[in-house]
Amino acid sequence: MQHLISGLCSILSLCLGTTVVADTADRVYLNGRIYTVNEAQPWAEAMAIQGDRLVFVGGNEAAREFIGASTRTIDLQGRMVMPGIHDAHSHLLWAGLHLNYGCRLNEQETIDGIISKLKQCAEGKDKSEWLLAGLIQHTFFPNNKPHRSWLDKAFPDTPVYLREMTFHHALLNSKALEVAGIDKTTPSPYGGEIIKDEHGELTGELVESATILATGFLPREPVERQLNALRWAVAINNQYGITSVQDAASNLDTLRGLDALDNNHELTLQVAAHLIWGSPGFGGMSNEDLLALIDDRAKYQTQHVRTDFVKMWIDGSPTPPYFTQADIDDQGQVEYSRILITPDKLNRMMARFDQAGIKVKMHVAGAGAARVALDAIEIARRANPQSSIRHELGHTNLITPQDKPRFKQLNVIGEMSPSVWHLYGRTLGDPPQPAWEFKTLLDHGVLMTVGTDWVITPVPNLFPGLQGMLLRDDESIDLVSALRMLTI
Question: Considering the entire predicted model, what is its pTM?
């Protein structure tokens, strides 16, 4: 695997044993172990490329017919070649901005380290300018309790907004709360919580949809910086063998940036841009405006960018300290208080998007959210019986036994991410529950795909995730199944 040749076209399996009319090829690769992801002929020795297309995949002798005076011949010496990787869950703009221009706190695991880094990031800025940084964990703070008081001492006059590691929550200092108009009388919005301490005072923590109370005040990144961030993100994906992605949070800035790159012949990825609906905090505008953008999506479709996709967050994150995922309770009922989009609204919008030919990816961290999402798809199937769109559940971490067969019944894709299964262990949630059941889902006939959830992971590298799929004890799957999940 370490000798991966990236950039191999995704239609490799269609080229087997066939030729496109061409006297010679630009490049011919010989003596390889070419994995085609084609069940009829999974392995080949050679391939020929003319321009940007594969014109032959098959045996060495047949490939030599494409060698001419100007053909470059490459001896692979037994190295493996596979199709370009598909990352089913990425955040190109978020990753590009945070990892290139953001004030990064990932390695500052003490409050002293955080304050020191924040002071570096604040140098040269006006005191009134927002200081945006991340990503933090509750373990970085004394007694594992984030609190605005630690930030207030160093930044009494500067609004500070710290993103939590999942991007679902945030910690603000007192100045930021003041600028955003948040005090202890402010009601928590639906699907979110403004955290208070034992004395009823604000800690500065905003959980889930409560972050929208502050995100509207954050400064917008300059257009050129956004373009540079996307350029970098695309290059990093190519570096890890990724040739297509599902961008799982495409806002207006993302669409404009991708459009500019593609029109300038700089976009070396196929991008399925999932437009946000139901999460104004992530989308940067109201649900009404997000829906208008979805209705106007064709305007942003280009050669390498497709826009018939929507992303919705159904619940939160199965991580401490708040565990905002929607589970199934002891009575077998969905924890509806943690569902971020009311089921009636979700059902209505799901049917609408399906009828419009839009594929929907729904973030589901808990088993309750997965059930609500499957219920919405089932309602859409009844409303639009002719639809063949394969909607998708993002993450698919925790699924009840009775819901697993519904994936195949409803023609639903199960996507798993991020690619850190070998680090997190076998369980998620509170109380811990079995998670990432690769083999069980495949045995139920679930069509599965995998993603990195980059920027949550430091790089968009799916090979550690591949290792995780192969080494999951009784949930391990075979290499062929795993590579199919990574490609077609």
Answer: 0.91
